[in-house]
Amino acid sequence: MTRGRFITFEGGEGAGKSTQLKRLVARLQASGHDVVATREPGGSPGAESIRELVLKGSADRWSPVTETLLMYAARRDHIERVIRPALERGAWVVCDRFADSTRAYQGAAGGTAPDLISALERHILEGTRPDLTLVFDLPPDVGLERAHARAGSEMRFESKGMAFHQRLRDGFQAIAAAEPDRCAMIDATGSLEAVEAQVWAAVSGRLGVDA
Ligand code: T5A
């Protein structure tokens, strides 16, 4: 059986992931691929219910460890019901955030012990890992300004202080540096077209897709 491909989009707040994810999905579909576009936390009915719990309310509503467990409960349901079945039928799964967000938000920025996160990755992901992760990088003040300017976003994580968002950026950069074969850094400060070109270069270059 041919397994599909699994691409994840990662980065801090307002980095432009959702905008670029839509563009990539359209491009992959135009080149004939069966594509499943999804997101975390969420992506399945059960995980979307957990999303409501974890993203709403005051910044300190949950401790980082509790958030880690909620994210992994949502992720397991999403993997079982959406991601794995899609990959098994040969589809390309393009996901807005995945396990690296837990490592960066709850781990590097929030202080959850790396050992706990590694154990959850081992037992809950069970090998469902991205083929390619695009790490969108930009200064946190620029991303937060973009996120605040856009209507309809959940504010719980955006409302954490600037030191949290700087640790978050450092955390994502460390993940990309530690796993260069899986991760491609995307300079998210440029125009929509400039960022799209970097995304396509990474996807076509690393996964061998024709336009
Ligand atoms: N979370 C998630 C955890 O803490 N742990 C986890 O394990 C997981 C999975 C999800 C939250 O959950 C946290 C992280 C998040 O805080 P969300 O509402 O789904 O929250 O939102 P985010 O994933 O954070 O995404 P954002 O909505 O903040 O931003 P995006 O998707 O990166 O950015 P996008 O595309 O919406 O763009 C933001 C604005 O900027 C503009 C867009 O038009 C839009 O208005 N823009 C640009 N402007 C100028 N130049 C560009 N190149 C631009 N690109 C986009």
Comma- or semicolon-separated keywords:
five-stranded parallel beta sheet, globular, Rossmann fold, 13% strand, binds P1-(5'-adenosyl)P5-(5'-thymidyl)pentaphosphate, alpha/beta, 211 residues
Description of the structure:
- The protein is an alpha/beta fold.
- It has a single domain (6-207), classed as P-loop containing nucleotide triphosphate hydrolases (Rossmann fold, 3-Layer(aba) Sandwich).
- The chain is 55% helix and 13% strand.
- The chain has a five-stranded parallel beta sheet, sandwiched between helices.
- Helix 3 runs antiparallel to helix 4 (99-109), helix 3 (64-88) runs parallel beside helix 5 and helix 4 (99-109) crosses helix 7.
- The mean pLDDT is 94.
- P1-(5'-adenosyl)P5-(5'-thymidyl)pentaphosphate binds at residues 13-19, 40-41, 55, 71, 96-97, 101-102, 105-106, 146-147, 149-150, 153-154, 157, 191-192, 195.
- Name the quaternary structure: single chain
Q: For the largest beta sheet, what order do the strands appear in spatially? A: 2-3-1-4-5
As for the number of domains, it is 1
Radius of gyration: 16 Å
Largest sheet: 5 strands, parallel
N-to-C SSE string, H for helix and E for strand: EHEHHEHHEHHEH
Low-pLDDT regions: none
Counted beta strands: 5
Mean pLDDT: 94
CATH class: Alpha Beta
**In terms of structural class, how would the helical and strand content be classed?**
alpha/beta
CATH superfamily: P-loop containing nucleotide triphosphate hydrolases
From the spread of the alpha carbons, the general shape counts as globular
The percentage helix is: 40-55%
